[in-house]
Specification:
By secondary structure, the protein is mainly α. It contains five helices and two strands. It has one domain. It has a two-stranded antiparallel sheet.
């Protein structure tokens, strides 16, 4: 449960960074909403994104493993963009404002999200060090 919560919060930050960097090409929440409403929208979209990436993502990646190997991992960009667009459709079903302009912007957003998740995840979940105490 702790891992899911940290992944959810890291995804929320990464999605916010991507929406901020991509400007009008990707948005979360409505521009006229209050700050608290926009934060709730980001958290809800991040929840959908985390669920999609933890349930649908591994299945799609296993099924497309030959293509991932042949393209030396570049197929993962396409898969991540499609998962982001799936998140957009799910958010639309729940009337949560989340918008990605096109597939090309979804690819760029998935790159920004992946880099942001790596950076933020390094701070949230730092690598564990093997600390050994030697006694004489």
């Amino acid at each position: 449960m702790e891992r899911f919560l940290s992944t959810w919060l890291v995804s929320a930050v990464a999605l916010s960074v991507a929406a901020w960097l991509l400007g009008d090409h990707m948005s979360i929440g409505n521009s006229g909403d209050s700050t608290s409403t926009q934060i709730i929208a980001v958290l809800v979209v991040a929840l959908f994104f985390t669920i999609v990436n933890s349930i649908v993502g591994p299945v799609v990646k296993v099924l497309s493993l030959p293509f991932i190997i042949i393209t030396l991992g570049l197929a993962l960009l396409i898969i991540n963009a499609l998962l982001l667009l799936l998140t957009e459709k799910i958010a639309d079903l729940f009337d949560v404002a989340f918008y990605v302009e096109s597939f090309g912007w979804a690819v760029l957003a998935s790159i920004v999200i992946s880099v942001s998740q790596s950076i933020v995840g390094a701070f949230v979940n730092p690598p564990k060090r093997d600390v050994r105490v030697y006694r004489d």
